[in-house]
Amino acid sequence: MLLALDAGNTNITIGVFRDGTLAHRWRLRTVHEQTEDEWGILFRNLFSLAALDFSLIDGVIVSSVVPPLDPTLAQMSREYFERDAVFVTSETDTGLRILYDNPREVGADRIVNAVAAFQQYGGPCVIVDLGTAITFDAVSARAEYLGGIICAGIGISTEALFAKTARLPMVEFRDPGRLIGTNTVCSIQSGLYHGAIGMIDGILERLRAELGDGMRIVGTGGQARLISRGSRYLKEVDADLTLRGLRLIWERGQRR
Q: Within 10 Å of residue 58's Cβ, how many Cβ atoms?
């Protein structure tokens, strides 16, 4: 079995693959201060609840955008799974040619998403990842990671409104059901929801003009499904895109 970890700024997503199929999936808060033993105990509890045997894990692969967490996860993998974790970087053999000016600047999650999307849809394709940041990543038909666009995430926008204003409350991100709000909460929710959709559709429209009408689009991340309900262009959503990309990269490495 393969243990795949996607460590983001807000959440860490955990997947266990059995014979190439995602058998179990968990999503937890990213706690920077946890020790390797605390992570190990957490994994033991999750595996116990799922009736999984630690000893059956024969590989650990990690996509991380939280560098301070990497040594802790690496040590946890060695101590609790007796495996050296593989950390995806721009130098990992993924099958994609990275055309960023400095490939080391590309987040591991963006590389992994690009691998999964290209394998499933071919190119050109664009991945919209709605996480702490909203990222757009473009892949050509020649398996080239072209680059992308990074925008402030919905959570950041919500927190900024609350923190930088005296009378605006913190609200839940949701579709308010109407465009014109008739109270403060509904007005904020409308601005956040329709503003995010307008931004995403506007960028995707420009990307389509540049990459061609055959461009495929896939969304992932916490708010992707909600956004897809109102978006003109973002209709395909794959919540497990990153985990599947990690599996593909792991399997590629095993074939070498």
A: 12
**121-165 residue pLDDT tens:** 999 999 999 988 999 999 999 999 999 999 999 999 999 888 999
Q: Which member of 6, 109, 129, 137 is catalytic?
A: 109
State the helix-helix crossing angle for 108-121 and 241-255, rounded to 10 degrees: 80
Among candidate residues 133, 126, 129, 94, the one with its CA nearest the CA of residue 112: 94
**In sequence order, which residues have a C-beta less than 8 Å from that of residue 113 and are 6 or more positions away?**
127, 129, 137, 220, 241, 242, 245
H helix intervals, 58-183: 70-76, 108-121, 154-164
pTM: 0.92
Residue 55 DSSP label: G
Model confidence over 73-99: pLDDT tens digits? 999 999 999 999 999 999 999 999 999
What number of H helices and E strands is found in the chain? 7, 10
Domains defined for the chain, CATH in brackets:
2-87 (3.30.420.40), 97-239 (3.30.420.40)
Q: Sheet harboring 11-18: ordered strands across?
A: 21-29, 11-18, 2-7, 59-64, 86-87
Strand ranges for 47-103 from DSSP E: 59-64, 86-87, 97-98
To the query of whether residue 109 is one of the catalytic residues in this protein, the response is yes
